[in-house]
Amino acid sequence: MMGKNSSACSFEEKESDKSLSVAGRRIGSLVRQLAATSMEGQADRDGDLRFQPTAGSAVSAFQHLEQAPEDPILGVTVAYNKDPSPVKLNLGVGAYRTEEGKPLVLDVVRQAEELLIQDRSRYKEYIPIAGLVEFNKLSAKLILGDGSPAIGEKRVATAQCLTGTGSLRVGAEFLSKHYSQHIIYIPVPTWGNHPKIFNLGGLSVKTYRYYDPRTSGLDYEGMLEDLHAAPPGAIVLLHACAHNPTGVDPTQDQWEGIRQLIRLKGLLPFFDSAYQGFASGSLDADAYSVRLFVGDGGECLIAQSFAKNMGLYGERVGALSIVCRSATVATRVESQLKLVIRPMYSSPPIHGASIVATILSDRNLYYNWTVELKNMADRIISMRHQLYDALKARGTPGDWSHIIKQIGMFTFTGLNKDQVSFMTAEYHIYLTSDGRISMAGLSSKTVPHLADAIHAAVLRLG
Ligand code: PLA
């Protein structure tokens, strides 16, 4: 049987070999023919022969790519890291540093991590598409306030996202799929990533006036005029507090005026809350604008970040909340958010959200967090005063009172591109080219060096 089979087999193999080689020859000639035709076509078009590079070719399929520029904010750190100077100072990215110039992990974060590690019942399973349920509830409560009617009425759909950036992006994609109006108005200036996030999220970006360089303050009238001229239903991006990069926030009265206009015109507010508690040191005071809008019963979106206020930068933890008219709508909104998230990154990471949920759900940890947060905010405010005093002491030309009037992580100094380049080249001080300084990166020891640099830059290039 074996022999018969094997001989039958070898006969079939020979037959199939033959047919394979016939097929192989046919394919070979077909490929040569196609190649010749496409090369002729190419030669006709371009006057010379060009092959499309493929994976097997010596030439890369990505040969045509140009070197992309560094990110305007994160690229400052790249340049800083390359500088060997011992006096170098990074005031580019908004990242909190201690008086010793070191990054800070909050004590409460360490404590929460200890608790998480000790709890052997915890796994590293996938979490739901919309994130940890407990984290979502607590995040919404943090921004909307204890006893918020919107939460009580179950009108808030929340999804844990990859921090502020991810929440904005998920929000943008959700709106571009499900909202009638695709135009979003952003302030001038704003965080440099905003227009990119919204464009790629499928929205069309327009701007409204915000900062007036003549007064170093809010261009309130310009803002209202531009929002008044916006098409009905347009989305409006609002910085909840500590506007980046200007450090200029509307007053409570101005917020009320903005709210009335937005509601009157039927515009849709989208809050970016990246600095709650970090601006004034009070979580409630920094949520004022959001709560004002939610208090009128209308709808809005909120992108929340725990990067700064819990120092969880690299853990990438934040949330998108959509406040809706009714519980029924909120349930549907959440179901649709999951459809946006699943093909993007499936579900969010577990660790950072577990830290936040642990802190927010424990009375003691929560209290200790508010104390640490206040210390960070106060240190930044004291840096403002020290820098202002140092410039006054040097008699640096100009009115520098905006340094102490502005709020949050940044001072929008008014220094121009050339002055910034000069400070980097001569003083090894790194900041974004728009003259924004991260006050959180300063310390009492480095203030004099920065003041010397600003003084020299203003005298030389003022
Ligand atoms: N929204 C605003 C207004 C921000 O300033 C930032 C961060 C974010 C959202 C996003 O931060 P997250 O994704 O880490 O939560 N802005 C920083 C960092 C601090 C950066 O550019 O990424 C800045 O230096 O402007």
Describe this structure in words.
The chain is of the alpha/beta class and about 450 residues long. The chain has two domains: about 75-105 and about 375-460, Aspartate Aminotransferase, domain 1 (Alpha-Beta Complex), CATH 3.90.1150.10; about 125-360, Type I PLP-dependent aspartate aminotransferase-like (Major domain) (Aspartate Aminotransferase, domain 2), CATH 3.40.640.10. About 50% of the residues lie in helices and about 10% in strands. It has 16 helices and 13 strands. It has helices at about 1-45, 75-80, 105-120, 135-145, 150, 165-180, 195-200, 220-230, 250-265, 290-295, 325-345, 350-360, 365-395, 400-405, 415-425, 445-460, and strands at about 90, 155-160, 185-190, 205-210, 210, 215-220, 235-240, 270-275, 300-305, 320-325, 410, 430, 435-440. The strands form four sheets. A seven-stranded mixed β-sheet has the order 2-10-9-8-7-3-4, with helices on both faces. A two-stranded parallel sheet has the order 1-12. Strand 8, helix 10 (about 290-295) and strand 9 (about 300-305) form a beta-alpha-beta unit. Helix 3 runs antiparallel to helix 13 (about 365-395), helix 4 crosses helix 12 and helix 8 (about 220-230) packs parallel to helix 9 (about 250-265). It is globular and about 90 Å long. The model is unreliable at about 1-15 (pLDDT under 50). Ligand PLA binds near residues 73, 93, 94 and 163. Ligand PLA binds next to helix 6.
